[in-house]
Amino acid sequence: ASITENMQLGAYTLDVGYAFRLEDIGSVATRACQPRPGGGCDVDDITNVEPFGYTGHTFWFSARMKPTERVSLELLGGVELRAYMGTDYTAQSLHRDDQLFFGSATASLKVNSKLAVSFRYDLVNNVSNSSEGTVDGHSYMKGVLSLGTLIWW
Fold it and tell me: By CB distance 3.0 to 4.6 Å, which of 12, 37, 128, 144 could disulfide with 98?
């Protein structure tokens, strides 16, 4: 479920929004194998549970402008707050919460009435209180640079 507000003043457009998300997709449990003398193994109790289901609250804003008829520019930013629906546990129980900060900048050039090219940079920073929801036990940041085409007919 989401709600947005759009405000336009001439060549400028501002958007703000909020979205609620319920991803009830369960969790995965991992069991450890204790080696037996002479080979094989005994399966121990569950040693790790990683929940995948979460509730999320996303807040965002964007600002677009069209300085000329052929050029448009956009900045977007926001945060998603995720609370996972299960409990992570390895050695100790932990309720996992993530904060995803995101932003992008886009420039588009309309080549003609049917074709435009765009240049975009996206950045995401994930901050988690659990090493299970991270890359190599750490929070992560990633950036993506893309060049695209837009075609109308």
Answer: 128
Contact 80, 99 (CB under 8 A): yes
- Class of residue 15 by CB neighbours under 10 A (exposed 0-12, middle 13-18, buried 19+): middle
CA-CA distance, 15 to 61, in Å (whole number)?
Answer: 5
In Å, the largest CA–CA distance within the chain is 79
Low-confidence ranges of the chain (pLDDT < 70): 30-35, 39-50, 87-93, 131-138
CA distances from 125 to 37, 68, 139, 141 (A): 46, 33, 8, 4
CA distances from 113 to 68, 81, 151 (A): 14, 40, 9
Task: Check: pTM over 0.85? Answer yes or no.
Answer: no
Q: Give CA–CA dist 124/144, Å, rounded.
A: 9
Q: Which of 49, 60, 59 is nearest to 84 (CA)?
A: 49
